Amino acid sequence: MRKILVAGNWKMHGSTAMVQELLDSLLTAPARAEVDMAVFPPFPYLPLAQSLLADSPIAWGAQNLNPAAQGAHTGEVSASMLLEFGCRYVLVGHSERRTLYGETDEDVADRFERALEAGLEPVLCVGETLEEREQDRTEEVVDRQLEAVIGRSGMAGFQRAVVAYEPVWAIGTGRTASPEQAQAVHAFIRDKFASRDGIIAGQLRILYGGSVKGSNAADLFAREDIDGGLVGGASLKADDFLAIRDAVA
Ligand code: 13P
Fold first, then answer.
1. Which has the least CB within 10 A, 23, 30, 89, 126?
2. How confident is the model at residue 31 (pLDDT cuts 50, 70, 90)?
3. Spans of all domains in the chain
4. pLDDT given for residue 1 in this prediction
5. Ligand 1 center–CA 234 separation, angstroms
């Protein structure tokens, strides 16, 4: 049985005071051992997250990494730097990286591979735009995004990775994919993996992201192939984030 993972991507939000308060509230809330939790603060707050969350059941990760080990990459952060601050996870291929910062499928595959090599667990984000959905190209787009990574890291790469399906049209818009829409894409993703390796497909956690809230989380998490959520806006307030966790049956 795959354990539900509720992960908070803070994007470019936060301050020292906010991180302190939010993590303190998460840590003092009654624990739920049956749900995994993780937070993805901006890079400067990783040391603070590490000091507050060490020895807690809440994991943390970064929002991106550079595929190079080190060198002349101004503004970038390497895997070894993330490891120094105790990161377990790293997001790769978030739609905002793809659309605002031009990361291609190949860039995303490089980052995924580098994360694996370094011992980080990549959370690979995939998803279609509204235009692509309206053109009935959702599966084609998700397939292409996954193939780029499978082509580089192989199926074995997914033994220690998470996939997040985040339809671009549902991110930050308040417009959530219906549980049926999300489940359909999650089943497509799992079937794709299952056609190559049933064991890896069965164990793979596939998160849904896009306007997840306390009010819609239970319905999403009840679906067979939805193994948790990658939460943006609603992960910035402890009560909202905990309401999502507490929606897990
Ligand atoms: P929202 O939950 O704010 O829609 O963001 C989703 C997301 O992009 C998480 O990575």
1. 30
2. confident
3. 4-245
4. 72
5. 8
233 lines ligand 1 (CB under 6 A): yes
**What's the 232 CA to ligand 1 centre distance in angstroms?**
3
Pocket test for ligand 1, best of 5, 165, 207, 211 (most atoms within 8 A of CB): 211
Q: Which residues of 189-200 are buried (b: 16+ CB within 10 A; e: fewer)?
A: bbebbeeebeeb
Per-residue pLDDT tens over the stretch 43-72:
999 999 999 999 999 999 999 999 999 999
Q: For 20-65, give the secondary structure using H, E and C.
A: HHHHHHHHHCCCCCCCEEEEECCHHHHHHHHHHHCCCCEEEEECCC
Segment 104-114 shows an average pLDDT of 98
CATH of segment(s) 4-245: 3.20.20.70
Ligand 1 lined by 166 (C-beta under 6 Å): yes
More confident site: 172 or 242: 242
Q: DSSP letters along 110-171, please?
A: HHHHHHHHHT-EEEEEE---HHHHHTT-HHHHHHHHHHHHHHHHTGGGGGG-EEEE--GGGT
> Tokens 């996939």 appear where?
163
Is there an atom of ligand 1 within 6 Å of 7 CB? no
Q: Is the CB of 171 inside a 6 Å radius of any atom of ligand 1?
A: yes
